[in-house]
Design a protein that fits this description.
The protein is an alpha/beta fold. The chain has two domains: 5-242 and 457-486, Rossmann fold; 262-449, Rossmann fold, CATH 3.40.50. The chain has helices at 5-19, 53-56, 82-86, 97-114, 131-138, 194-201, 210-215, 226-231, 268-278, 303-315, 328-340, 355-362, 378-384, 395-400, 421-435, 438-449, 455-486; strands spanning 26-29, 42-49, 61-70, 73-79, 121-125, 150-155, 204-207, 236-238, 289-293, 319-323, 345-348, 365-368, 388-392, 414-416.
Length: 487
């Protein structure tokens, strides 16, 4: 049920944790579009009742919890509910999403309570599961089994905090995160800030890159939660996401036509010819190809190219490939650019799973000028193929890309700091000038391809974080027990 980067993480991280000897399982809703012929499920808990204050008045229960086995091991659980999951065509995007995620949070905990399998740590990802730490801290604080479970709240994107714009919340609707969770039929639930509650109650708060963990404690990046995050600074950590190095490996990639690696980089040029054919661009020999593979949104910073793009295309010899969908204004701009520069620019403004592989293997550089970027996967995937990233120094981009230095011949990309079109222009020009020197460019590509972005490294860091969460949770429980005894 992959939806963006979070879907990639929820597949790859537990998988790598299992390879490292840990029993890591995920739990998500049982969505209607799942292919149960390909992924057969069996019932593990029947008639799981959500016996809690927020649903008693509604008389609601979740029918079953299903499990999925992979290589003889249970790796995933699925919460059934016909009304809120199986009758829905999409994963996200409904007005009653807060109810849907409330049910998931409660269902996870009631399932763990009933199940023989008890985890040491629960990782709640993003706002949709932010109520899990809240419920464990309040509703299950004295449960003999659940009270022992540590929680990590993992922030993948702080700007999404619920089904409302947190920048425009009235004083009456403001959720400080400490009141009781409203009933399922209470309108206040729709304005509940799940993100704030996850941050407030979790034993540890984690983000998907070290730099983003620092950035979100500032007003510029904190999305009105920076005060709370500064309070929790001692429990706030950042671990850079990894990538699936089996799926994104030009030596074995089944999608691209010509395989290559660091030692056979000369084969890469053939993929450049393939890319030009797929995007109907003329063969311009040694001209570099700059690319975009992204959601076309304001956050990704592509508005900067509106001011810089035409000047670059008018004054420098390069071709430009764009793959993505998003804001109507940006899509219109890139479409217009393709019409005005048909020999230089080609765009594909819809989602496609295979084209990114062709673009990574065939383009010389990839543009990622994000306003903010919690982690980012595209720059890492592109680097494994030798496509050099041009990035703004923020979040995971700052942690994964180091600026090229022509004097010392170090670095694996081109980095700019200020969020303005002149800084972007300068970074692209630096890339185009460096490309003119084949030996320097090849060395730059090899450095990019040799960076270790595997999940093995990130998963080992997560194991250390899990152990820390267990210690933090035990210390908090011991402190609370001591206070009760003194009273």
């Amino acid at each position: 049920m992959k939806v963006g980067g979070l879907g990639s993480v929820m597949d790859s991280l537990p998988r790598m944790l299992r390879e490292q000897g840990h029993d890591a399982r995920i739990m998500i809703p049982r969505y209607a579009t799942m292919d149960t012929d390909k992924f057969p499920l069996k019932t593990t808990v029947k008639d799981l009742k959500l016996a809690s204050a927020e649903v008693d008045s509604y008389g609601l229960c979740v029918s079953n919890v299903l499990e999925y086995e992979e290589n003889g091991r249970v790796t995933a659980y699925f919460l059934e509910n016909m009304e809120y999951y199986e009758k829905r065509a999409n994963v996200y995007g409904y007005a009653d999403d807060p109810i849907r995620w409330l049910l998931l949070c409660r269902g996870v905990l009631e399932f763990v309570k009933k199940s023989e399998w008890k985890p040491d740590v629960i990782v709640a990802s993003d706002w949709q599961t932010g109520l899990i730490p809240n419920m464990l801290h309040v509703d299950y604080a004295h449960d003999p089994a659940l009270s022992k479970i540590a929680t990590i709240f993992s922030i993948h994107n702080l700007s999404y905090q619920g089904m409302f714009d947190h920048h425009f919340v009235s004083e009456m609707d403001y959720d400080e995160g400490q009141s009781a969770i409203p009933a399922i039929n209470d309108e206040r639930l729709l304005k509940l800030n799940f993100m704030r509650r996850g941050i407030r109650y979790a034993d540890i708060v984690n983000t998907v890159s070290p730099t983003y963990a620092q950035e979100i404690t500032t007003p510029e990046y904190g999305e009105l939660l920076d005060d709370l995050l500064r309070e929790r600074r001692s429990s706030l950590f950042g671990i850079l996401n990894g990538i699936d190095c089996d799926s994104y490996n030009p030596e074995v990639d089944g999608i691209i036509e010509f395989k290559y690696g660091v030692k056979t980089l000369y084969e890469r040029a053939k993929n450049k010819t393939v890319l030009r054919k797929k995007f109907n661009l003329p063969d311009k020999g040694g001209s570099p190809i700059l690319s975009i593979v992204s959601r076309l949104t304001d956050q990704k910073g592509f508005g900067l190219f509106i001011d810089a793009g035409e000047h670059l295309l008018n004054n420098y010899d390069f071709q430009f490939v764009v793959l993505g969908t998003g804001d109507a204004g940006l899509m219109s701009f890139f479409r217009s650019l393709g019409e005005r520069y048909p020999d230089k620019v080609s765009v594909h403004l819809s989602f496609d799973e295979k084209l990114p592989h062709y673009i990574f293997a065939g383009s010389d550089a990839i543009l990622i000028p994000s306003k903010y970027e919690p982690s980012g996967l595209t720059q890492m995937e592109a680097m494994k193929y030798g496509a050099i990233p041009i990035v703004r120094k923020t979040g995971g981009l700052a942690d994964s890309v180091t600026d090229y230095d022509p004097k010392t011949q170090t670095g694996n990309g081109f980095v700019f700091e200020k969020f303005d079109n002149y800084a972007l222009y300068g970074a692209i020009v630096r890339m185009l000038e460096t490309y003119r020197y084949p030996n320097f460019w090849t060395a730059l590509q090899k450095r990019a391809m040799n960076v270790d972005f595997s999940w093995g490294k990130s998963a080992a860091e997560y194991v250390g974080l899990f152990k820390k969460a267990i210690v933090f949770h035990k210390e908090a429980n011991d402190k609370e027990s001591s206070l009760r005894q003194n009273l």
